[in-house]
Design brief:
Length: 270
């Protein structure tokens, strides 16, 4: 499972989650778990351009019996979309969505752990109700806007989150940051963010930058021709590739199948 958070005031966390699911190297499921309310049901359309229905949704996934097979049953609550991504949409209304996440996040995270699921967990805050999705994730991504205040907020938030995740699980997740920036600022913004995170020696890799391209996003979600060559998609592809490869390594390490994971077990045994 890959869990994606945003920083307060930053654009693009949900867009990043959507792009990640669309560009993932294997079939992935996108789960919208933002406790502030979902918006994918309003932003996306069905395969033929039709309005997405209000159900199925995360409400059904939240109350799945604890003994049911997690990922297989999760697909029963997904909707097919025009961009080719299967989405378990959040509830549009903030209050019932917040209740669903607070009451059922831990159970949902437990079912989805170890699967090719992308979770849009909303804004990262201290004591966030979506913490179970971070604790169960093999990889975590924080989406950051282009600005000094965003970079320092990201540093402080990750500095608080990562020890909590390690204490909860006893393992280290693969953690990445992604900058949303204008095309002319992308590379510089990613370098500046890496410098700020490095001031605390955080085990966080800056995967790169994704273009802040509203026009490209609108044309892509409307399935217009030629959008695969937009700066939005071109900037997202290498970012998603790096994150997917790190997620795969973390999956192997947690299962003990990789040499790295086996070596760590051996060292602990000594």
């Amino acid at each position: 499972m890959l869990t994606i958070f945003g920083v307060k005031g930053s654009p693009g966390a949900t867009t990043c989650a959507l792009l990640t699911a669309a560009l993932w190297p294997t079939q992935a499921l996108l789960v919208e778990a933002d406790p502030a309310g979902g918006d994918l049901a309003l932003r996306l359309s069905g395969p033929s351009g039709q309005v997405l229905p209000r159900s199925p949704s995360i409400a059904g996934l939240a109350v799945e019996p604890s003994g049911s097979p997690g990922w297989e049953r999760a697909w029963h609550h997904a909707l097919q979309t025009r961009v080719g991504v299967s989405v378990v949409c959040g509830l549009v209304e903030a209050e019932p969505m917040g209740i669903a996440v607070r009451q059922h996040a831990q159970a949902m995270a437990r079912r989805l752990a170890g699967t090719e699921t992308i979770v849009d967990a909303g804004r990262l805050l201290p004591q966030t109700p979506t913490f179970p999705f971070a604790a169960a994730a093999e990889a975590i991504v924080l989406v950051v806007g282009d600005g000094a205040e965003q970079f320092f907020h990201a540093r402080d938030l990750l500095g608080g989150l990562l020890p909590e995740v390690s204490a909860e699980t006893g393992t280290r997740s693969s953690v990445h940051a992604v900058v949303v920036a204008g095309p002319r600022r992308g590379s510089a913004a990613a370098t500046e963010l890496a410098s700020v995170l490095g001031q605390r020696g955080l085990p966080v890799a800056v995967a790169g930058w994704i273009a802040h391209d509203r026009s490209g996003l609108q044309r892509w979600t409307a399935a217009e021709r030629g959008t695969g060559r937009s700066i939005l998609l071109r900037s997202a592809r290498p970012v998603v590739t790096e994150i997917a490869e790190a997620h795969a390594r973390a999956m192997r390490a947690r299962s003990g199948d990789s040499a790295e994971g086996q070596e760590q077990v051996s060292l602990r045994a000594r």
